[in-house]
Amino acid sequence: MNYRHAFHAGNFADLVKHAALLQLLIASAADPAPLTVIDTHAGAGVYDLAGPEAQRSGEAAAGVGRLSEARDAPAEFAPLLAAMKRLNGGGPTRRYPGSPWLVADALRPQDRYIGCELRPSEHAALRKALLGRPDAEALCADGFALAAERSPGAGQVLVLIDPPFERGDDYVQVVRTVAAVRRKNAAARVLVWLPLKDLETFDAFLRDLEDAVDAPILAAETRMRPLDDPLRMNGCALVLVGDAGEAVDGLTRICGWTAETLGDGGAARIYRL
Ligand code: SAM
Fold this sequence. Notes:
This protein has 273 residues and is α/β, with parallel strands linked by helices.
């Protein structure tokens, strides 16, 4: 396991993922039933944008740095910007919130969060980031293995699957995990983040997912540039399995703005399977 999210925190892909995640949480809050959020690959929870990793990659400057200055960003980014303000005490954006912090910050008293992180150093940081939040649990565990086991069998469940995709079997594991969660709770919604390098890999993943689950599937591609170099991360995709509710319009604006404003000849594609 070499992947360190500190190099990528606050980049375009985090903006898309986190803005979409917050939209789903806001929509879930319309239902008073308790919500359980399971984050299979939680990361460290909070990232230092002034740290050597972020400074070296420059990805946060090209992502959240530009979003913070933008005057034309769609309203769907407002909850993320507001969360960043809370995390930074209203001062300059030195720290960027990962999915665990964002979810824990948005929980209602009846909700809970379970974050899995395998890397011990990241898990230690995650525990620290969630200190004082009794409804948020940080497990040092394999999120693929625990997602279905920890999903309640009924009620509102949202599972975020956000692996590093550094292992050859990550795509297969994602499909297996989505299917297992949906078998446990047929109403569960699963949001998967994926890199977009070439379309063949992504299309093959979607076909496998369609074969494995009997549920509505919504795909949202944020192409930052034409997909003509399969060795580069040319964009990212979000795949929402389960009831998409009113998510399409928001995703269209989130992905569209990111691709067109932060990308280089980029474009977004949102479609149902
Ligand atoms: N979801 C986080 C966010 O949005 O802030 C970012 C997560 S990062 C892309 C992926 C994380 O998964 C890394 O911190 C890595 O150490 C961890 N990881 C890798 N394999 C894992 C596994 N099988 N179970 C749990 N965590 C894993």
